[in-house]
Design brief:
mainly beta; Immunoglobulin-like
């Protein structure tokens, strides 16, 4: 499966190259990426969700725009009912050569109960298929993996199985979810649920349209882990909610319908 996905990305990169040649404007960037969490040798006990956070680095020569998008794939070696986690997000920050991205977060399940021994397994990360927002006239971006980047990139974790939930000790990361993520026009508010968050940390919220136009967020209500952002003035369309928590940045998408 991993080989099939890699081949798909290679084909997509070739397609992007043809488009670049046609438009005559190409940004060349050289990237690398690293896990922030989990850390090597962290122990995970099935069944569990492995919280993953990472960032990527721009080694030049051109700038990555905040409106550019990229795809990430998170996978591991352990057999079970879980498939690769694939996400596509906007970069959300202008990254000049020598700078790094914000932290992106997701999770992947692990549920292997046939072996009670502790052993190592590989957690993989692939960041690829960087594309520009052609609606605003951005030059096409062509990204290559830096030669110093271990490819495929992975870290070694430890795994065991326990039937006792009390033994489950994981390095939980904060997470942000929306409920629902599809609203009708005129709805009062967007419900935001924060998980694994210090109640003393006050989150900040930013709202963007699909065209990257910032929308003023006012009169946010709630506390601790549950907040409501008013959206009754939004027109039908796709929107991005950016939540910032203690240096971490989360992006969630929601849709407003007629």
């Amino acid at each position: 499966m991993k080989h099939i996905i890699l081949r798909i990305f290679i084909l997509l990169c070739f397609a992007e190259g043809f488009i670049c040649s046609a438009l005559g404007q190409i940004r060349q960037v050289n990237i690398g990426y690293r896990f922030i969490n989990p850390k090597p040798e962290d122990l995970f006990v099935s069944p569990a969700q492995i919280p993953v956070s990472f960032r990527f680095y721009n080694y030049g020569k051109d700038t990555i725009y905040s409106t550019d998008s990229f795809t990430y794939i998170i996978s591991h070696e352990i057999l079970g009912p879980y498939k690769e986690v694939i996400g596509r997000v906007k970069v959300g920050k202008t990254i000049i050569p020598g700078d790094s991205s914000e932290v992106f977060s997701d999770s992947i399940g692990v549920n292997w109960t046939n072996d009670h021994h502790t052993y190592h397994f590989k957690l993989f990360l692939l960041c690829s298929y960087f594309t520009c927002d052609r609606n605003n006239g951005s030059p096409v971006i062509r990204a290559t993996i830096d030669s110093s980047q271990m490819y495929p990139y992975y870290i070694l974790l430890r795994h065991n199985y326990s039937s006792s939930v009390d033994k489950l000790k994981l390095p939980f990361l904060p997470s942000v979810s929306l409920n629902p993520n599809m609203l009708s026009s005129g709805s009062d508010g967007l419900n935001i649920h924060l998980q694994n968050v210090d109640p003393n940390v006050i989150p900040s919220f930013k709202l963007y349209s699909v065209n990257d136009q910032i929308i003023t967020v006012t009169n946010v209500s709630g506390s601790d882990q549950n907040f409501v952002v008013p959206v009754n003035n939004l027109l039908p369309g796709v929107y991005y909610l950016i939540t910032e928590l203690n240096g971490l940045r989360f992006q969630n998408t929601f849709v407003v319908t007629n």
